[in-house]
Amino acid sequence: MAADTFHGLFIEELKDIYNAEKQLLKALPKMAKASFSEKLKAGFTTHLAETKIHVERLEEAFKLLDEPVKGKTCKAMKGLVEEGAEAIEENDAGLVRDVQLIGAAQRVEHYEIAAYGTVLSMARLMAHDDVAALLDETLQEEGATDKKLTAVSKEVNRAAFKESPGM
Ligand code: FE
Ligand code: FE
Questions:
Q1: Ligand lying closest to the C-alpha of residue 105
Q2: Which ligand is nearest to the Cα of residue 21, counting in written order?
Q3: Is the entire prediction scored with pTM above 0.85?
Q4: b/e map of 22-45 (b: 16 or more CB within 10 Å)?
């Protein structure tokens, strides 16, 4: 990430998140399809719809900042998405794999929460208030998604342990 000014770094960070969200647009339908639990499947489908809005909000942010709408490969998200794909490839569908999918999805949400938290505080400091409002909306949705995943995991974990304790 080459940037020698605060504002320049802010734009680079936005490009990183923009690319990360676009990677998720491709990954979330696969996560939904791979889910055994109907609740988990519905959760991924809902978050896919939200993610489409996250992409649009970032496009709006670039426009407000008079910057071209552009992403730059987010290597961290690439790795997180690959881990989710690996879980799907290497294991049969079922409750235990759902536990793994939730773990992968929560890692993604935590990454997004960190990334949006960073750019939100930068935007506020520079008084880019309209951009900050957009970023904050998305940050709240990422947080809500993480909490929903925790709630689903309580149910899925218990059922997976009951079905296949392995001990
Ligand atoms: Fe997002
Ligand atoms: Fe998300």
A1: 2
A2: 1
A3: yes
A4: bbbeebbeebbebbbbeebbebbe
- Sketch out the chain's domains with CATH numbers: 6-162 (1.20.1260.10)
**Based on the number of CB atoms within 10 Å of its own CB, is 138 exposed (0-12), middle (13-18) or buried (19 or more)?**
buried
Q: What is the pLDDT along the chain (167 residues), one digit of tens a residue?
A: 778 999 999 999 999 999 999 999 999 999 999 999 999 999 999 999 999 999 999 999 999 999 999 999 999 999 999 999 999 999 999 999 999 999 999 999 999 999 999 999 999 999 999 999 999 999 999 999 999 999 999 999 999 999 999 99
As a whole number of angstroms, the distance between CA 146 and CA 102 comes to 10
Residue 58: φ, ψ to 5°: -70, -40
Q: How far is CA 103 from CA 154, 157, 161, in A?
A: 12, 11, 15
In angstroms, what is the span from residue 155 Cα to ligand 1's centroid?
A: 24
Q: Residue 138: nearest ligand to its CA? A: 1
Q: What is the 145 CA–ligand 2 centroid distance (Å)?
A: 7
